Every structure is written in structure tokens, then in C-alpha cells.
Amino acid sequence: MTSEHNTRLTALRAALKSRGLDGFLIPRADEHLGEYVPKSAERLEFITGFSGSAGLAIVLPAIAAVFSDGRYTLQLEQQTDPALWERLHMSETKPEAWLAQHAKGLAIGYDPWMLSADSLARFAATKMVATKTNPVDEIWAGRPAQPSAPAVPHPEIFTGESSSAKRARLGNALREAGQDAAILSDPASLAWLFNIRGADVEFTPIALGFALLFADSTATLFMSGEKLPPGTRAHLGPDVALAERAALPAALASLAGRTVRYDPAAMPVWFKTTLEAAGAKIAEGPDPVALPRALKNPVEQAGARAAHRRDGAAMVRFLAWLAKAAPMGAQSEISAAEALLGERAGEHNFKGESFPAISGAGEHGAIIHYRVTPESNRPIRPNEVYLIDSGGQYLDGTTDITRTIWTGPGPAPDLVREHVTRVLAGHIALAQMLFPEGVAGAHIDAFARAALWQAGLDYDHGTGHGVGSYLSVHEGPASISRAAKPVALQAGMILSNEPGFYLPGAYGIRLENLVLVQPADFPPQTRKFLCFETLTLAPFDRALINPALLTAPALEWLNAYHARVYAELSPSLPAGARDWLAAATAKI
């Protein structure tokens, strides 16, 4: 690794020098600025070796640094060479502050397709120079080709609303705001608005492209023609014009004098500078699709419940198998993940995993976003903690579940049971919440941490993220996180509930269900209240629960949840798994 990445870093510095640049920013991003990128856009991994889903590298003539967040602290240390890279936590050391300190008087390049306007503005203290092409691509021999999977229609039996109806109501919203058009750069927004799905990135069924949505409800979809077979073209209809990506500059130039909505936090700054050069009026605002996409309609909600029942049955069959296999010590992180995938694969409407399974035994579980490889794979040993975080993509819904398991056959240590039970207490506290309309995830995050805080413990990640409908397993705009911009939770949103605790070098704990925000069945006093409907169906490991650490209401919730899991899943299970589930969900 050292020589390979040293060679690449040396080549990049030479390429920068030839352009008259002293440094360069390399975010983990593609032109859509989302979490999910094709292999051809993994520039950060190519240069540094770091494969996490969030990060940024800064290369200067004599030094270089790579930044990520608390999910990837251990992974960053394992995958990058300290002789080449200073490894930094981006919350503790801001990249813009580091650059301002080390790049005084230097010209720093950036790709205007890889940074949003807001991200670029944070580097205002440094001389920043936009590049026409990306210098990393110049030195990347054997760079993977751009993906070309076809975009396919997603039927209304799953979406619950036609594309024309979606465009009509969003076009009306643009008119009411006095806007003529809106830029759409998030492929998930295209997928939702046009009722299409694709296969351009792993685990997330999106087709890469851009779009302009107009106030008259028409749209232009900028997507490679080879990705649009006749059936998809017919599905899109006459009110959606089709164009290649190369037509984008001319299309934006034609908007001179018109008011165009642009999201400075989530869209490439290229759009902003191009619109300004064309003489368009920019109306800053969030992607108009983001919130409507997050508010699942009744058909999508019903689909999510159905998908979670099937996913739960697969999970229970896996857990029943693991309960017998784990104490024998013959399984590994990879074999267990493959066994779970095998159980899901037989379920109706299953299309693949929603992300690479995080299958971490012992100390690997403490790596929050651990991804097992043939090199890191290790046995799942008896009498240790095993964490499995996984999910499925189904035509009617997207799932994401984490369970923490004691492998046995002996009893779990008291301290481990205490840690798990405190995490469970936080999970239950969130699941039980009643909260008024207008409350955001940032306002309730602490409820999931309180039991841990009482013992001087915490976890370095958010408590919940939004989840799409056969789309991204991480979806905005809402989340449950103290670090996030507050976005009010609304009925129809699906989010995760996943507190955790991680003891480096020993074990990791995370307990995750997906929840659906619903109107509370609660007599209104002065305002309306909301609550969470738990969608995920799978038991929590009794071997890791100390009921003495749970309040009576929490224990009542746990027993009621387990009873529901058994009632909903047992009819579809084979006898062996059904018997195991009966014991796993017995009243505590």
C-alpha cells in the first residue's frame, strides 16, 4: 500500500505543478454530491486508500491530510499511511482551518463538480482555483468506466403516485414561490420524481443524471441515451424532454433572466457559476423533491410494512441458525453475512442488499462502519459479542437492521450486559416517544443517549437517518442527530433508531430498528403530537439484557414488541425457526 499510494501522491503533485497549482481538494464525492458513488468516482480511495463513505483529502506540496468523521476513525488509521497522510477528525479539526494554516499564499485547486457552493464558501480564507478537469483522473490509469445500466420504470403499485402527478404538485409549488425552474442533481430525486430506478451504483437503485423541473410541470432529463430503453422513454411521456449531459451548459444558458432554484448546500457549485454567467436569477432553496420524497404516501407505507415482515422472517431464520452455529466457532464474519444474504435472497421482491453488511465479531464490531474483506475476515468465536448491521432492497421498501448477539454457549459478562441494556434503554426511550409537531431529530437525540450518559458513556454517530422507499438507505432531509441541521419530523418519514456503544479493541454494540413517523392517537390539548411506529421485526438478544436496568415501562415495551414479532412472523416460519423465535420472544 505504501509504495503504491506514495507513487500516486507524487504523480498528483506533479500534475498540479504542471497546472500552476500548489494543492488540491479531493472530496469523497461525484458530480451528484451524494453518499453513493460509482467506482469511477472513488478518487479519495484511489489517492489515499481510505474507502469510507465520508471524507476529504487535501494535498499540498510538502504535506497532505485526510479527514473523516467519528464513524471512520479506526478505519482511517487502518487504511492510510501515516508517512504520507495526517489523519484528522473533521469535527475536531476543520479542513478549512487546517488549509488556511498550511496554505498561506498558495493556489489550491478544486473541481467545481465536486463541491457545493456552501462547501466552497468555507474555504474563503484560501486562494481557491476551479479546474476544468479533475487532475486525479489524469493520473488514474485503469480508471473504471462510467456506469451505463439502464433506467427502468418503477410501477405505480409501489410508488403510489404517478410521475405526472408528482411533477404537477411540485411545479405548482415552484409557481407559488415565483420560480421558473429547479435544478435536480440528486439521482434519488430523479428516481422518485420520474418513477424510475437504476443500477449505476452498488446497493442503491439509482440512475445517474440531472434534470430541470419547470413551473409548468414539464421537465428535461439529462441522462445518457444508452441508459434509456424504449420502454423507459414511453414511461417518461411527452412532457419529459430527454438530453445528453453535454447539453447542460446550453440548457442553463437558455435560462437567462429566469428565476432558478438552486440548493447551495447539496448541488455542485458548477451550476451556480454557470447560471450566474448566463444571467439567470438564483433562488437559493433546498432540492424541491427532498421533502416530498421523505413523506411516504399510504402505498409506500404499506409496502414498507410488507417488506419488513419478509425481511424480519429472513432475519429470524438467520438468527435461529446463528444461535446453533456460533457457539461451535466454525463460522466467520464473511460466512455469517453470506448466510443472511442467502436467507433474504429467497424473499419476494428482493433485489439485493441495501448496503454492504457490517459483520463484525469482537473488536471488529467497535469499528462503526467496518466492512469485512477476505484479508480482515476472522472467525466468530464462542463467548464474544457479534454485531450484524445489514439491510435489503425490495421493490416495495428498503430495510436496515442491526442486532448485537452474544455467541455463547457461556453467559455474557455483567459489564457487557450492562452496556447492551443501556443501549437498549435508549432505543426503547426513542421508540416510545410522543412529541409535538415541529420537533426535529436534533431535539430528541439525547433521549437515546440518556441511559449511556448516566454511566459516562456515549457514541460518536447520529442516532437515526432517513430511509427511502426502494431507494437510498440513507435519505434526507430529516435525521436524528445533534450535529444535523434541524428538520422537523413529519408523518410519513421513515428513520432509523440506532443508538450504540463501542469499546475499541473489544466489542461494538448497536441496536437498530426502522420507525415510521405517525400522528399520535392522543387527544390534542394545544397542538398535534406525533409518535413512532416500529417497522422492523426481529428479537433482541435476551442473553445480553439485564432487565434490572430497565424501567417498568421499558420492559413492558420490550415484551409487547417481542410478542408482536412472534405474532407477525411465526406463521411464515419453518418449525425450527418458529420454535427458536418462541423462546427468543418469551416474556421477560
TrEMBL record:
Entries under Pfam families matching the protein: Creatinase_N, Creatinase_N_2, Peptidase_M24, Peptidase_M24_C
Keywords: Aminopeptidase, Hydrolase, Metal-binding, Protease
Record-annotated Peptidase M24 domain positions: 304-518
Peptidase M24 C-terminal domain: residues covered: 528-588
GO function terms (MF aspect): aminopeptidase activity
Recorded superkingdom: Bacteria
Gene3D superfamilies: Creatinase/methionine aminopeptidase superfamily, Creatinase/prolidase N-terminal domain
UniProt xrefs under PANTHER family: XAA-PRO AMINOPEPTIDASE 1 (PTHR43763:SF6)
Family designation: Belongs to the peptidase M24B family.
Name listed for the protein in its UniProt record: Xaa-Pro aminopeptidase
Species per Swiss-Prot/TrEMBL record: Acidocella aquatica
